[in-house]
Amino acid sequence: MSERHFVRDVSDLPTHGHGPSTLTWWGTMGFMLIEGFAFVLAGFTYLYIMMQFRHWPPGMPPPDLTWGTLMTVALLLSLIPNVWAKRVAEASDLRGTRRAVLAMLAVGLVTLGIRWFEFTVLNALWDSNAYGSILWTILGLHTVHLLTDVGDTAVLAVLMFTRHGKAPRRMGDVTDNAMYWNFVVGAWVPIYALLYLVPRFA
Fold first, then answer.
1. What is the 3-state secondary structure (H, E, C) of the chain?
2. Number of domains observed in the structure of the chain
3. Model confidence, pTM
4. Where do the Heme-copper oxidase subunit III family profile domain residues begin and end (predicted)?
5. Full residue range of the structural domain in which residue 61 is found
């Protein structure tokens, strides 16, 4: 029986892509799934603690709406430059991607500034009671994701202005980072409702 050898020149195939064609995309999806469950568990814990009290929040006013609402508006508006970043990266537009990444870095730093002030008007400390603990835990968990994305965006911003920025892999990293920011924004909307609206209307 004769052996057959199949040989093909694959040198013209791309070394990296976007979306499900990359392992990074799947890794990011898995990470978001795990962290999404963490948010769900934290949310149910909040609701369970709430059911143990007759008045909510117990013995203190709810968090001030100003900074939390400003955070919500800022995050929703940030989807505009985030979509832009994804599109220019998919088009391998180096100049546009550089601008978009810098814009998203600025957006991330602004949201971190807002979050700092948000922590100052929660009207509860982490050690006040069970309510204060879960309030700070949920907000702290979301802050970790903000810091993670801003840090990743900062690294990308530096790389995009070096010779590594021209590599197709970097463009894929930008699209994955945009997807992760969508997760950060999407996770915040129910958190805002839980922490700011439920205590006022429940």
1. CCCCCCCCCCCCCCCCCCHHHCHHHHHHHHHHHHHHHHHHHHHHHHHHHHHCCCCCCCCCCCCCHHHHHHHHHHHHHHHHHHHHHHHHHHCCCHHHHHHHHHHHHHHHHHHHHHHHHHHHCCCCCCCCCHHHHHHHHHHHHHHHHHHHHHHHHHHHHHHHCCHHHHCHHHHHHHHHHHHHHHHHHHHHHHHHHHHHHHHHHC
2. 1
3. 0.87
4. 1-200
5. 23-201
